């Protein structure tokens, strides 16, 4: 899909995030460009989730900055969406959860409903549109979260361990949807613990260890053999 | 020795006899307390939710004060409202003293902090769960207030009920600003006070049983509503 | 959808007709709890309303409070029973056209066991002296009411310096006649009450009339219009209609007709010349 203006590339410039005496993100500099699927790997506590939240604007950096491309005007958040490990659903129908975000962006009512139904169909939840979202299963709710995000037509989709709480079948369904979203032109930035998943989905890998960006390479290169000591240790299973 | 049996018999006779005086008192009690609840929640829910989401200097002090105001003594509220509405007071020309309107005002003041303080707690807890997702979707705090109020509607029913319970049960405020005038501002609680002072204890107790039955029914209805709806909607 | 409906329902409930100010003709009469507890108003006011169409809203407090309410302009008419306080009210310019309407009497009630041995006496001064000397439990209203003022005057007339002899035996309840009698009944104490409240009082338990008939126990009721010069919003015409009625032959007869168990509570005594 061709966009009139783009918020990419995203520039992280000596990004730092500190809480109390702990430096959670430490001097991260990198550019994220469109088209590819970026997967962030790292041991527990490396700061993967925090990095995503800094990029998406849910957290404010204590040092450095997060810079989206200057070629558009308005709030960059409107061109992004995020899916969390545990989906947060409003106490209303599945359909209403999807139309909620569309309403925030000013879509007229008829358009909202039609677009929401389309999205629900695409994630396989068409029959459950009228069902209260909170009674859906974990896997269904996560697919609903994806439908909700997809409906917003984001240029960048952040996903924080989206399948960590799901059984393998549900996880596969989610991966297929992520793939479909990407094929339509959305940049994917995702964290995961699941190396198999990273294999399946990543075009490039960002490896974080204790808040620092230790290694960055294409997925093919990374899985052939990571160059950094930390990444090697991680892949051998020696880091948590 | 007080005859509890006589009291229950009196209460039963009152209810089944559809005594018109009793009906008028009960209807007025419900009208006054429900009106006060409507006003108190219309103002209190958004106020509580706004405090839950906003961050400003002195916020913690505001919360402490709000919680403390839940314990506002009804007589004190009654006295202050009386002084405001008296002809000798600033709002005397409204002619509201000794009318049900004054009672509604006084009870609204009692209910408002209860609703706001409890709503604040509920919404603040909900915000902890919803904040990231709502902000990600682009909901500004002003918008999020209404989204959360609607999402927590079942818990908030309990809050509204607490407000109603407080209003229906109090006598200190309404007796001062209403004057307990027969047929005009006499409600269940003030009628009980009057009959007690006249020494007609079985009647007073009978009225008390009617009042508590009403409050019990309101609570049961709200509970049933909450349970069935919650199980359907999650 | 649901949200809008509930909101509309709530608003409709608010708008449900509540009698507020200024609908039909009505006046606010500040009177005393003794008068209300006697049941006189429940008898008299419907008759007055049927005749004139005027709704009389009685706010019942102690005499002191009732007069203060009128001073603030929150009532149109006062109907109390404490001549000294009423005259002061009149002199201060808050009231006009005071008329004496009716009288009843006070009695002292006490437990049947009669610990002070005063039952049956007609001499209230002697009875009070005995009670204070033997420190027999006695409940007083202590609330600046007409009844309380009369009680204090009788202690003084009996030569008893109440402040000097006050002790645990003298219980001031700070409340109306009814609650004070409740407490006396529960404690087995003596109490000073107006006969109207006593006849209508349903929780007597062990209490009965111990002292009555002394001329000093006379209790006069007076009615006044709140001065429109001080409070222009006072409903002068409607207020005077009420005052004229209770002092008219017809109204006076109605008052005399109010009985409990065949016993008349109030004795009308309006005389045009007196004031």
Detailed description of the structure:
The complex is a heterotrimer of chains A (240), B (234) and C (275). With 240 residues, chain A is α/β, with parallel strands linked by helices. Chain A has a single domain, classed as 3-Layer(aba) Sandwich (Rossmann fold), CATH 3.40.50.300. Chain A has helices at 48-56, 94-104, 109-122, 138-151, 168-183, 195-201, 219-224, 229-235; strands at residues 10-19, 22-32, 37-41, 63-67, 80-83, 156-160, 187-191, 204-209, 212-218. Chain B has 234 residues and is mainly alpha-helical. Chain B has a single domain (4-233), classed as MetI-like (MetI-like fold), CATH 1.10.3720.10. Chain B contains ten helices and no strands. In chain B, helix 2 packs across helix 6 (141-151) and helix 5 packs antiparallel against helix 7 (153-169). Chain C has two domains: 25-104 and 220-268, D-Maltodextrin-Binding Protein, domain 2, CATH 3.40.190; 105-217, Periplasmic binding protein-like II (D-Maltodextrin-Binding Protein, domain 2). Chain C contains twelve helices and twelve strands. Chain C has helices spanning 2-15, 33-38, 40-52, 63-71, 83-91, 124-133, 146-157, 162-165, 177-187, 195-200, 236-246, 249-257; strands at 26-32, 55-61, 77-80, 95-111, 138-140, 170-172, 190-194, 207-211, 218-226, 259-260, 263-264, 267-268. In chain C, strands 1, 2, 3, 4, 5, 6, 7, 8, 9 and 12 form a ten-stranded mixed beta sheet that branches. Chain C has a two-stranded antiparallel sheet with strand order 10-11. The model of chain C is unreliable at 15-22 (pLDDT under 50). The B-C interface holds B 31-32, 34-35, 38-39, 41-42, 86-89, 92-101, 104, 150, 179-182, 184, 194, 196-201 and C 3, 10-11, 13-14, 16, 18-22, 28, 33, 36-37, 41-42, 55, 57-60, 71-74, 175-179, 181-182, 185, 200-204, 231, 233.
In CATH, the topology of chain A is named Rossmann fold
H/E element sequence of chain A:
EEEHEEHHHEHEHEEHH
Ends distance of chain B: 52 Å
CATH topology of chain B: MetI-like fold
Supply the number of structural domains of chain B: 1
Gyration radius over CA of chain A: 18 Å
Shape of chain B: globular
Count of spatially separate domains of chain A: 1
Features of the shown structure:
heterotrimer; A: 240 residues; alpha/beta; Rossmann fold; 6-stranded mixed β-sheet; 3-stranded antiparallel β-sheet; 8 helices; 35% helix; 24% strand; C: 275 residues; D-Maltodextrin-Binding Protein, domain 2; 2 domains; 10-stranded mixed β-sheet; two-stranded antiparallel sheet; 12 helices; 12 strands; 41% helix; globular
């Amino acid at each position: 899909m061709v966009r009139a203006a783009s918020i990419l590339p995203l520039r992280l410039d000596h990004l730092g995030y500190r809480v109390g005496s702990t430096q959670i993100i430490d001097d991260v500099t990198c550019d994220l460009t469109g088209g590819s699927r970026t997967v962030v790997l790292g041991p527990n506590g490396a700061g993967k989730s925090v990095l995503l939240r800094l990029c998406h604007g849910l957290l404010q950096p204590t040092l450095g900055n997060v810079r989206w491309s200057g070629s558009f005007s308005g709030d960059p958040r409107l061109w992004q969406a995020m899916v969390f490990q545990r989906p947060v659903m409003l106490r209303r129908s599945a359909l209403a959860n999807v139309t909620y975000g569309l309403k925030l962006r000013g879509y007229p009512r008829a358009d909202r409903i039609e677009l929401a139904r389309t999205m629900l169909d695409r994630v396989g939840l068409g029959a459950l549109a009228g069902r209260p979202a909170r009674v859906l299963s974990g896997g269904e709710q996560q697919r609903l979260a994806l439908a909700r995000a997809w409906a917003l037509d984001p240029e960048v989709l952040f996903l924080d361990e989206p399948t960590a709480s799901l059984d393998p079948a549900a996880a596969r369904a989610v991966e297929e949807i992520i793939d479909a979203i990407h094929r339509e032109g959305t940049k994917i930035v995702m964290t995961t613990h699941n190396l198999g998943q990273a294999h399946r989905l990543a075009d490039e890998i960002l490896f974080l260890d204790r808040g620092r960006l230790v290694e960055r390479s294409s997925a093919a290169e990374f899985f052939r053999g990571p160059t950094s000591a930390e990444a090697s240790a991680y892949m051998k299973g020696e880091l948590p | 020795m007080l005859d509890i049996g006589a009291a229950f018999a009196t209460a039963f006779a009152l209810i089944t006899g559809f005594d018109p005086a009793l009906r008028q008192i009960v209807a007025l009690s419900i009208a006054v307390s429900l009106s006060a609840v409507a006003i108190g929640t219309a103002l209190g829910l958004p106020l509580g939710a706004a405090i839950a989401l906003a961050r400003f200097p002195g916020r913690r002090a505001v919360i402490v004060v709000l919680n403390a105001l839940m314990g506002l003594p009804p007589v004190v509220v009654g006295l202050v409202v009386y002084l405001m509405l008296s002809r000798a007071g600033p709002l005397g020309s409204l002619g509201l003293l000794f009318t049900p309107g004054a009672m509604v005002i006084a009870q609204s003041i009692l209910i408002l902090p209860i609703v706001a303080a409890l709503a604040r707690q509920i919404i603040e807890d909900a915000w902890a769960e919803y904040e990231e997702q709502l902000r990600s979707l682009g909901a500004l705090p002003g918008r999020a207030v209404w989204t959360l109020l609607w999402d927590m509607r079942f818990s908030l029913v309990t809050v509204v009920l607490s407000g109603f319970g407080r209003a229906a049960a109090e006598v200190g405020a309404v007796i001062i600003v209403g004057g307990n005038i027969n047929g005009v501002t006499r409600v269940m609680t003030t009628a009980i006070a009057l009959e007690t002072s006249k020494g007609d204890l079985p009647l007073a107790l009978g009225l008390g049983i009617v009042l508590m039955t009403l409050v019990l029914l309101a609570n049961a209805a709200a509970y049933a509503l909450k349970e069935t709806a919650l199980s359907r909607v999650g | 959808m649901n949200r809008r409906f509930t909101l509309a329902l709530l608003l409709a409930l608010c708008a449900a007709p509540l009698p507020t100010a200024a609908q039909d003709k009505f006046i606010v009469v500040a009177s005393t709890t003794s008068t209300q507890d006697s049941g006189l108003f429940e008898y008299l006011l419907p008759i007055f309303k049927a005749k004139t169409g005027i709704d009389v809203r009685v706010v019942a407090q102690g005499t002191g409070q009732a007069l203060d309410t009128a001073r603030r302009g929150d009532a149109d008419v006062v109907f109390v029973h404490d001549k000294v306080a009423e005259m002061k009210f009149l002199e201060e310019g808050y009231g006009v056209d005071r008329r004496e309407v009716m009288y009843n009497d006070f009695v002292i009630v006490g437990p049947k066991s009669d610990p002070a041995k005063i039952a049956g006496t007609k001499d209230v001064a002697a009875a009070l002296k005995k009670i204070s000397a033997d420190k027999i439990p006695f409940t007083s209203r202590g609330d600046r009411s007409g009844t309380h003022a009369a009680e204090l005057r009788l202690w003084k007339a009996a030569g008893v310096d109440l402040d000097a002899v006050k002790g645990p035996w003298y219980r001031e309840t700070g409340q109306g006649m009814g609650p004070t009698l409740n407490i006396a009944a529960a404690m087995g104490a003596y109490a000073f009450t107006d006969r109207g409240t006593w006849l209508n009082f349903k929780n007597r338990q062990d209490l009965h009339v111990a002292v009555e008939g002394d001329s000093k126990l006379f209790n006069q009721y007076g009615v006044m219009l709140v001065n429109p010069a001080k409070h222009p919003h006072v409903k002068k015409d409607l207020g005077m209609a009420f005052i004229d009625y209770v002092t008219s032959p017809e109204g006076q007869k109605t008052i005399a007709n109010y009985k409990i168990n065949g016993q008349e509570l109030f004795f009308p005594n309006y005389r045009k010349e007196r004031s």
